[in-house]
Amino acid sequence: MFFDPETWVAVAFVILMVLFGYLGVFKSAMTALDHRADRIKAELDDAQRLKQEAAKVLADYKARTASAEREAAEIIANARSEAERIAADAKAKVEDFVARRTKTAESKIALAEAQALADVRAAAAEAAVQAASTILSQSVKGQIADDLLAKGISEVRQKLN
Q1: What's the CA gap between 66 and 72, in Å, rounded?
Q2: What torsion, rounded to 10 degrees, do the Cα atoms 23, 26, 30, 32 define?
Q3: Is the N or C terminus of the chain more exposed, i.e. has fewer CB atoms within 10 Å?
């Protein structure tokens, strides 16, 4: 048994373990392992905290995106309604402008007709006065003719104008 190498390995192992126990290697190894476990636990806690913060940031980003999409939809809807209102206003203004232009043109036409009618009447009156003057001057002579002529001319002018 003393010549057997496994025996000496077992004896050396036991002596080494007793020496480690006496020197406190087990305590320091356990302390190191405890520190490492604490460090790993702290890293896991930190990772969990970072994960929660990332989830909050993601939720905030999604909320902001949804809010921005709603605002964009509202802006588009407002722009469309504003464009429709502006188009309706422009159409009403154009219709009003056309109506005013038409009314102005109609009144100018009526004024031109009235002026033409007045010109025709004046020309007719002038022609009638000239014809009456010519006829009366040839048929009636003297002072009576002049009085009749003046009276007739003034009556014709008053009635035709």
Answers
A1: 10
A2: 50
A3: N
Number of structural domains found in the chain: 1
Q: pLDDT per residue over 43-92, tens digit each?
A: 999 999 999 999 999 999 999 999 999 999 999 999 999 999 999 999 99
pLDDT in tens, 102-137: 999 999 999 999 999 888 888 887 887 778 777 766
Q: Identify the sign of the CA torsion 154, 156, 159, 161.
A: negative
The whole domain housing 10 covers 5-160
The SS3 assignment for 140 reads coil
Residue type, 60: D
Enter the tokens of residue 159: 């009635």
pTM beyond cutoff 0.70: no
Q: Are 115 and 94 in contact (CB under 8 A)?
A: no
CA distance 90 to 97: 10
